[in-house]
């Protein structure tokens, strides 16, 4: 009788409930024989209404004069970072020596890890989009707010710096990370970079980091907690096409290495009633003749008197 009841319960359960409930990206669904949960069925807060990523329509962004320059601490220190394949992306573990402040943030945030999203296609690998356009990759540097432990979840507990990546010239600064990929093809593998690099080595020129967009959203992987203050920088990083393709070629979603890790991108979510802000526009730089003109005029008037 107990066996019969158990069989009846199993038969009544939805097919998905009987399958393994680990999450995956859309590209993994068919090869997995639907044994994982795709983006449309991610659990936690993933089906809520303040989710990320979003499409940033630049013409609809609102200028926020409080979004000034960032203060980067430890971003210039070179390390041989630990790199890990976690089954969903490649992650660089940043220890506890790197932090940011300023940039309109309420307090200091300490960096924990960076990871990337990508595709084989040079216009399909970013999670955020600008005016509907995707980039080849997107890099996220994840920071946690420095604060006393609390059970309360705030909408800005995590600060993520997001950088678009486009195909362009060869980027020698990224090469230590690209070379490390060969040592971590399967999930739960890790290695140490053979060369020391700093986070600044991976970013666009520091002067361009004044230009960014800001909104409140969520993590882009389950459980999609809505506690992220997003900073999406306007200036993209350039990698050579071969460097970009290395991520799809050398990393795998599975231990059997039967499925290349690629298209690890969450679909764009509805912005809803949220506003995307842009950083303070810099004042125009005055050329030397413009600066000298008023002074010369004053001198001339004085001389004529």
From TrEMBL:
InterPro entries: CA4/CA15 (IPR041874), CA_dom (IPR001148), CA_dom_sf (IPR036398), Carbonic_anhydrase_a-class (IPR023561)
Main location class: membrane
UniProt key word Glycoprotein: yes
Reaction it catalyzes: hydrogencarbonate + H(+) = CO2 + H2O
Localization annotation: Cell membrane
Domain Alpha-carbonic anhydrase: residue ranges: 21-280
GO MF annotations in UniProt: carbonate dehydratase activity; zinc ion binding
EC number: 4.2.1.1
Pfam families: Carb_anhydrase
Cleaved signal peptide residues: 1-19
Cofactor: Zn(2+)
Keywords: Cell membrane, Disulfide bond, Glycoprotein, GPI-anchor, Lipoprotein, Lyase, Membrane, Metal-binding, Signal, Zinc
One GO CC annotation: plasma membrane
Membrane topology type: Lipid-anchor; GPI-anchor
Domain of life: Eukaryota
Function: Catalyzes the reversible hydration of carbon dioxide into bicarbonate and protons and thus is essential to maintaining intracellular and extracellular pH. May stimulate the sodium/bicarbonate transporter activity of SLC4A4 that acts in pH homeostasis. It is essential for acid overload removal from the retina and retina epithelium, and acid release in the choriocapillaris in the choroid.
The protein's assembly and partners: Interacts with SLC4A4.
Family listed: Belongs to the alpha-carbonic anhydrase family.
Protein name: Carbonic anhydrase 4
Naturally occurring in which organism (per UniProt): Odocoileus virginianus (White-tailed deer)
Taxonomic lineage of the native organism: Eukaryota, Metazoa, Chordata, Craniata, Vertebrata
Gene name tied to this protein: CA4
């Amino acid at each position: 009788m107990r066996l019969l009841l158990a069989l009846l319960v199993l038969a009544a359960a939805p097919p998905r409930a009987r399958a393994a409930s680990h999450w995956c990206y859309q590209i993994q669904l068919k090869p997995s024989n639907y044994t994982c949960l795709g983006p449309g069925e991610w659990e936690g807060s993933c089906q809520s209404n303040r989710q990320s990523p979003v499409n940033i329509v630049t013409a609809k962004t609102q200028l926020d004069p409080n979004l000034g320059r960032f203060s980067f601490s430890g971003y210039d220190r070179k390390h041989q970072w630990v790199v890990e394949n976690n089954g969903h992306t490649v992650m660089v573990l940043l220890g506890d020596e790197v932090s940011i402040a300023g940039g309109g943030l309420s307090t200091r945030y300490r960096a924990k890890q960076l990871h990337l999203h990508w595709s084989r296609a040079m216009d399909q690998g970013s999670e955020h989009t600008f005016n509907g356009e995707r980039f080849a990759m997107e890099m996220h540097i994840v920071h946690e707010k420095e604060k006393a432990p609390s059970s309360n979840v705030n909408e800005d507990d995590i600060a993520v710096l997001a950088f678009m990546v486009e195909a362009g010239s060869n980027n020698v600064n990224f090469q230590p990370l690209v070379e490390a990929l060969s040592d971590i093809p399967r999930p739960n593998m890790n290695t140490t970079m053979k060369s020391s690099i700093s986070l600044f080595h991976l970013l666009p020129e520091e002067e361009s980091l004044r230009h960014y967009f800001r909104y409140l959203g969520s993590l882009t992987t389950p459980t999609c907690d809505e506690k992220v203050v997003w900073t999406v920088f306007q200036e993209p990083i350039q990698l050579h096409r071969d460097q970009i393709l290395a991520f799809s070629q050398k990393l795998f979603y599975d231990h059997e290495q039967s499925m290349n890790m690629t298209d690890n991108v969450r679909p764009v979510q509805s912005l809803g009633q949220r506003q995307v802000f842009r950083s303070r526009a810099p004042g125009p730089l005055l050329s030397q003749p413009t600066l000298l003109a008023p002074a010369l005029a004053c001198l001339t008037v004085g001389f004529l008197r």
